[in-house]
Amino acid sequence: MTLPSPCIDPPDIEGFPLPHLPHGVLIIDKPDGWTSHDVVMRVRAVLGIQKVGHAGTLDPHATGVLPVLIGKGTKIAQYLLDWDKEYVAVLQLGEKTDTQDAWGTILEKVSCESLSENDVRSVFKHFQGAITQVPPMYSAVKVGGQPLYKKARKGQTVERQAKTVVIHDMEIQRVALPEISFRVACSKGTYVRTLCADIGDRLGVGGHLKWLQRSRVGPLHLDQALNMESLTDVSQYDEAFYSLDHVLDGFPAVEVNGDDARKVLHGNAIPWNRIEITEEKVRKATPEEDRRVRVKNKDGVLLALGKGPSLQSGQSGPVLVIDTVLG
Predict the structure, then answer these.
(1) Which pLDDT tens digit goes with each residue over 248-284?
(2) Which 8-state DSSP code applies to residue 315?
């Protein structure tokens, strides 16, 4: 099936490009038919900023929260990818597809006449907590150095290792057989279309994902997100834009002073006994815990992300190790 091609040319607006944003994360509501890369290209063109990326790819037909990384925000993708996610989805029972969603080829159709709402609710209860999933063939997971979807497009099927994911919460919102609307909060790496296919198999009729919207990524919510039509209106950015310090505030902060602030910006480790620590959980941290922290200067400016107290060879005691320089 050919996807619609979004226009990614910059709009003809007075004063293009728009004023430069500080480094951080822009929450975008990705529209249907756009790839995550399409969104990045559009943001680059409209804002006139080359250093733009994203965290947590959405399939082309999925909509909802896409964290777009601006400037030095591109350095923190790995930390955002660890966040849990929340989705609203529609499961279509009675049809299996090769892609586990509505845009693949139907492989099998089974009547759902014998199913009841109680059957559905009973099976949903089995998909709570830690579960195992086999990554779908149509996915970006690499086997032998090649993404699975490339092999799938050639008609190949390869053995994939099951992995454990966590379903934190799942709530059925509407049962209108053969369709089930539900909300799910889950750990990183969870495939909602695989969840739909597995639920369908457990019910004995098969199933696929009919519709998907990502409503949350960590602390970033859909009601804060900017739609693509509003990209040219800077006044709409207030809720949609997070500074680096704001988006990383789940990590406790420590302070460095004087020449140590300059050394941090060069990625140098700092003796742990020279770090200013205000949070008790960091003060009591041991090398075994090795806590990740935001590193700031005396003026409260975010300089880097680091870990400590770390033990390193050649050091006389524990140190703050700098992972990512952001200042």
Answers:
(1) 999 999 999 999 999 999 999 999 999 998 888 888 8
(2) -
CA distance 306 to 325: 9
Q: What is the crossing angle of helices 192-203 and 117-124, to 10°?
A: 130
Q: Where are the domains of the chain?
A: 24-82+219-246, 85-214, 251-325
Cβ neighbours around 33 below 10 Å, total:
13
Q: Which of 59, 101, 198, 260 is catalytic?
A: 59
Collapse the DSSP code of 21 into the 3-class scheme (helix H, G, I; strand E, B; otherwise coil) and give the result: coil
Largest pairwise CA distance in the chain: 73
Lookup: tokens for 190: 């969870």
Q: What topology does CATH give the domain 85-214?
A: Pseudouridine synthase (3.30.2350)
Q: Is 98 a catalytic residue?
A: no
Kind of pairing, strands 276-277 and 241-243? unpaired
DSSP 212: E
- Between CA 193 and CA 129 the distance in angstroms is 17
Question: Is residue 68 within 8 Å of residue 62, measured between CB atoms?
Answer: no
Pick the more confident residue, 77 or 13.
Answer: 77
Which residues are 24's β-sheet partners? 70, 243
85-214 and 24-82+219-246 share a CATH fold: yes
Query: Are 53 and 39 a contacting pair, CB within 8 Å?
Result: no
CATH topology (fold) of 251-325: 2.30.130
